[in-house]
Amino acid sequence: MSHRYDEFVAVKADAKLNAHALRADFPIFEQEFHGKPLAFLDSAASSQKPRQMLEAMNHFYETSYANVHRGVYELAERATEALEHARERTRAFLNAPSVREVIFLRNATEALNLVAYAWGLWNLEPGDIVVVTELEHHSNFVPWQFIAGKRGAELRLLPLTEHGELDLSGLDALAAEGNIKIVATTLVSNSLGTINSLDRLVPWAHEQGAIFVCDGAQAAPHMKLDVQALGVDFLAVSGHKMCGPSGVGALWGKTELLQRMEPFLTGGHMISSVRADRTTWGELPHKFEAGTAPMAEAVGLGAAIDYLEAIGLDKIEAHEHELAAYALDRLAEVPGITLYGPPADRRAGIVSFNLDGIHPHDVAQILDLSGVAIRAGHHCCQPLMHKLGVAATNRASFYLYTVPEEIDQLVEGLYAVRKVFA
Amino acid sequence: MSFDQMYREVILDHYKNPRGHGVIEDADAEADGQNPLCGDEVSIYVAFADDGETIDEVKFSGRGCAISQAATSMLMEMSKGRTATEVATMDKEELLEEIGIPLTPIRLKCAMLGLTTLKVALHKAKGTPLPEGLAGFDELELT
Question: How far is Cα A367 from Cα A362, in angstroms, rounded to an integer?
Fold first, then answer.
């Protein structure tokens, strides 16, 4: 018992997470690139994977693998149990009221498309308005543009302030324009790191009679999410951004909405009965999970959630704010740099920037030779790039395993870039 | 690989002082190309000599990474004085040799943007063969 007490005290005493120690959980950092240790500053695109998650998937494959839900033998039951345990872990992670509201899909993109097709296509009328923002990832932009176009509905973009935060001053004018049916925004911008406050937007959307669809892909890895506190109607997450495997994501939606929706994909598993002339749909969540589920991936997602919660989402969030502040500080020293986005306290661990006269691809290429991995491009945010007046930016993004030394390595690399192009 | 191998002096020179940079008004052939992966853009303009076949003048405008802009600049020097058919059938290896640096698959797209765009311009004006890869072009626009 005293051992337990010690552990408890140790956790309490160490209020900050120890990124240097956590790196040991991630096998990827054991290798060098171009003869240098890897400074992986592209976690916003996809996070690295902890051993604990990889082992959980492996364990599932080695001890519990069979197709779920159908077999009556013990192995199939074990597999089903593992999948449903992952669903429960995901429910708790999002503080969703019911496990039936958690649908496993390939990723957040598929989740958002599900809502666009299974709700938007059936409920939008010509002339209705769908509201998104200039900040959106293409995954929460293109489906709405496409479905609105198909139904003859209008797509409207909430503008941004000069700091890259949502400008809500035009909401009244927008409400007067017509029948707003869908409001879709991201919680955290994958490009600028902006953390959007939904406090005003969600009640406003509901006053208009609209549903609120939240892209949580970039927020879920970094902060505690609570779908009930947020008040949204749908929320999408991707496993690969939060220490889980690629190939699994989840959609959470309110039961009363999901029940009234037609399915997105049809086929095996999602049915109640199939006759030559008619098929009836299965219960939630199966109605939206046609085909064999990403079983091992869902188990991996569950293990990733265990991993994140053992560290503490609040600690991860604090760590990232600290890194963002440090990075903004250090990067500001570099001559000819332009930094985009809000101040550190209002952003996740994401920093977008440009070096005067040097294309981001050239910056990223030279940084790669210094062992620094950053992303260069439009980050699937072309409307935002247009708004910023650039074709592309450099983006450095951080996670729980990022250490300040990697940001130092980035800054040194940027001086090398400037030297090449001097 | 070091910085110097990747960004050879000649690449940086073409990037900073692009040859044939500009626009030809009333060009005989022109096309716009984009590399959607990184936002490189070039527009290429061609004027033919009196024989209607030899490239008398060729210019480009655009913006993008050093590789895309330097490669297009080199291409301007390489294609002037050749016939449309010669350029349309020019092997990409010829340009790659001129660039002279190892390129990853992603950067290869940057390097080929100018050549692809030039070949599309010639195709539209003279019906010469289209290049193999058509990244950045709507194929419907070309038929």
Answer: 8
Considering CB atoms only, which of A369, A376, A377 is closest to B3?
Answer: A369
Q: What is the token pair recorded at A171?
A: 């909401």
Q: B91 or B135: whose pLDDT is higher?
A: B91
**CA distance linking residue A376 with residue B35, whole number of Å:** 13
Place of tokens 């699994």: A248
Mutate: best of A352, A359, A386, partner B, most B CBs <10 A? A359
Q: What is the pTM of this model?
A: 0.89
Domain ranges (residues) in chain B: 3-128
The pLDDT value given to residue A34: 84
Does residue A365 belong to the interface with chain B, where contact is any CB pair within 8 Å?
A: yes
Question: Tens digit of pLDDT for each residue in B100-125?
Answer: 988 888 889 889 999 999 999 999 99
Q: Do B7 and A360 touch (CB under 8 A)?
A: no
Count Cβ atoms below 10 Å from residue A231 Cβ, excluding itself.
Answer: 16
Residue of A nearest to B107 (CA): A361
Which pLDDT score is estimated for B40? 85
A-chain CB neighbours of B3 within 8 Å are 366, 369, 416, 419-420
Which residues on B lie below 8 Å from A365 (Cβ)? 6, 107
- CA triplet A78, A82, A85: central angle to 5 degrees? 135
Q: Is A155 on the interface with B (CB under 8 A)?
A: no
Which structure tokens are listed for A71?
């077999």
Verify whether the Cβ–Cβ distance B39 to A420 is below 8 Å: no
**∠ Cα A123 A129 A130 (to 5°):** 80
Amino acid (one-letter) located at A131: V
pLDDT at residue A378, rounded to an integer:
86
Q: ipTM of the assembly?
A: 0.79
Question: How much is the pLDDT for B1?
Answer: 64
Mean pLDDT confidence for B42-67: 95
User: Which residues of chain A does B10 touch, with a Cβ-Cβ cutoff of 8 Å?
Assistant: none
A45 in B contact zone (CB under 8 Å): no
Residues of chain A scoring pLDDT < 50: 1-13
The CATH number for B3-128, chosen from 3.30.70.2860, 1.10.1740.10, 3.90.1010.10, 3.40.640.10, is: 3.90.1010.10
List active site positions of A.
380
What chain A holds in terms of domains, given with CATH numbers, is: 12-41+312-420 (3.90.1150.10), 55-309 (3.40.640.10)
